[in-house]
Design goal:
The chain is mainly beta. The chain has one domain. The chain has no helices and six strands. It has a three-stranded antiparallel beta sheet, with no helix packed on it. Strands 3-2-5 form a three-stranded antiparallel beta sheet, with no helix packed on it. Strand 2 and strand 3 form a beta hairpin.
Length: 74
Amino acid sequence: MKKRYTSITTFIVYICNNSTDETYYITIVIDAKPIGRLYGGDWMFIPYEGEQGIDISSTNTNMELEYMVIYQTV
């Protein structure tokens, strides 16, 4: 996921690792800074400025991931 949103003021990002195997995890990096890992079944909401890229990598190629960007326009 690498999208940039610039004409919107407020963002919340939701990311969920839908894997049923707790040993599979995804790593979240924002603007080249590691944020953390989400193991199978974990999810997170984070505030987001919309100017940095979000990079997500996984430990397995067959993992399911959900994400959503919630925003308020000006």
